[in-house]
Structures are given as structure tokens and as C-alpha cells.
Amino acid sequence: DAGVTQSPTHLIKTRGQQVTLRCSPISGHKSVSWYQQVLGQGPQFIFQYYEKEERGRGNFPDRFSARQFPNYSSELNVNALLLGDSALYLCASSPTGGASGNTIYFGEGSWLTVV
Amino acid sequence: TQLLEQSPQFLSIQEGENLTVYCNSSSVFSSLQWYRQEPGEGPVLLVTVVTGGEVKKLKRLTFQFGDARKDSSLHITAAQPGDTGLYLCAGADDYKLSFGAGTTVTVRA
Fold first, then answer.
1. Which end of chain A is more exposed for a tag (fewer CB within 10 A), N or C?
2. Which residues 24-53 of chain B have a CB within 8 Å of chain A?
């Protein structure tokens, strides 16, 4: 069975540009979460979507937005890119929305470099 | 700001040696999870601990959860090069995980 798939795997953007990252969860999983992992740090929570509804948002500016589609795939959008947005963006899927009672599966991530 | 503090930040040992990494939280979470992340990959769940005082074993890995449910440790016996990676602890609440900064473990052959 396919795991969590993310695209693109690597990309380079210029300051001020916009980026869209994509994620397909494991088949049957209805929850998708996004995390940002800056080099040398642990992942930081950005968003969680469950059944196409936003259930939680981390401490990120409004330049970050996301959505979940009817097939449970998801997109993360970042506008007006800053150098500090350079990071590994991880998508995670789980069967339901809870983080405590579920096994959460992470994708391999999308490496974003802002120059 | 990381709610979970992990130590040490880096650990380099010889194959066959034992190692312990620590995770201390300023908050009590619903559960605490340990992950291993290898270069170019996402974190992979190793174990979830829920009950204070809990001890779980996974082959050569032993996980302990403190009585107050704020501190945890991961002990690896007879480490192998395949144990090399970034070890992350995470507190789980409702819909999100709060991660520590991780311990980078290198096991030299």
C-alpha cells in the first residue's frame, strides 16, 4: 500500500513568490496535518484538516493557508515567501482527527529553499 | 518555543555501546510519542506512552515514562549503525503533536 505521498520533493523559490505543496494521505485516512521542520529543530504544527474541515492551526502567519479536497488530499499554500520559510514541509495522515489515540504517518516531505 | 526539551542534542557512540536520550516536558500531554527520523525521510513512530511509570520495550529499545507524565527516556542497548538517526519526542494533544528539537544519534561501526 502507498504511504503518504508529497510533491514536489524539492523546490527553490524567490522571496515574495508563492508556493503550493501537495499531499496525498494513506488510502482510507481522513485526516491530514502539515508541519514545518527548520534545520536543527523538530517539526512545528501548521494545520490539521479532518473531513475537509480545519480543526486546528498553529502559530503561523496568514501567509500560510491550506485546504483538503473531497478525496482527502491536501494542499499547503504559502504566499509572499520569506527567507525564513526555507524548511522541510511534512504532511502527516491518520485515520481520524485525534493525535493522541492514532498512529500518525508522515510523508518524506517537501524541501523548500527560498533565495 | 519548544515545550519539550531533549538532551543531549548530539550523541556519537561506537557500535555495541549503550545510549540514553531524554525528553522533559513543561506540560502534561494526553500521550507522549517517540519518533526516529532518518535523513531525507519523515519521522517514523517508534512508541506511544500514556500511563505514568510505564515502561515499553521494542527489541533493543526501552522507553520509560515518568510518574508525573512529564519526562521520558529512550535507552538503546548494544547500538548498531542502523540506529543512527534523529530521535524526536512529541506530546500529543487533541489534533496536534508538539515536538522537541531532537537528539541526533550517530553509531560508528
1. N
2. 29-31, 40-45, 48
